[in-house]
Amino acid sequence: MDDFSRPLKKRGRRAAKRIGCWLREQHLIPDTILSSPATRALATAQRVCRQLDIDEAAIVCDSRLYEADAQTLLTVLKTSCHERRVLLVGHNPGLEDLLLKLIPDSVPLSANGKCLPTAALAQLAFEGDWTELAEGRAKLVTLIRPDSLPE
Fold first, then answer.
1. Domain of 81: which CATH number?
2. Domain total in the chain
3. Which is nearest to 69 in space by CA: 100, 98, 40, 44?
4. For the whole prediction, is pTM greater than 0.85?
């Protein structure tokens, strides 16, 4: 099976559900959900939507997010986001590279040595408009890895 069509594995399905529950408990409901159209990314976004009681039609698929590098992801955020709270669902290594580019501090690694393992959530904050988002301008508020959350 090609990478684009690869389905979300059982571990990924459980992780997406946990992240959706955590977002709901924290009252962090996204205004916009941008997702790669790849099968596993879209399935992750849909599972999160179910936990948040958001219509899955609210997901905006953007083909630029599939296998995007950090610069492409930054461009998408700067040009496509007009709301306050955005959930970006994509792929590594681009998402990890974007995280490291946006925050000036180091990021703690998971047990497997990754910043963002499957379905991890990095909550960032920054001052200004999305068009002003730039390297080193964001602050890491929290980093949630699904394995650290209850079933």
1. 3.40.50.1240
2. 1
3. 98
4. yes
Q: Would 151 be classed as within a structural domain? A: no
Q: Is residue 20 situated within a structural domain? A: yes
DSSP assignment of the chain: --TTTPPPPHHHHHHHHHHHHHHHHTT---SEEEE-SSHHHHHHHHHHHHHHT--GGGEEE-GGGTT--HHHHHHHHHHH--SS-EEEE--TTHHHHHHHHH-SS-----TTS-SS-TT-EEEEE-SS-GGG--TT--EEEEEE-GGGS--
Using pLDDT thresholds of 50, 70 and 90, give the confidence band for residue 72. very high
pLDDT in tens, 84-132: 999 999 999 999 999 999 998 888 777 777 788 888 999 999 999 999 9
| 57 within a domain of the structure (yes/no) | yes
Residue 31: per-residue pLDDT: 94
Domain assignment present for 4: no
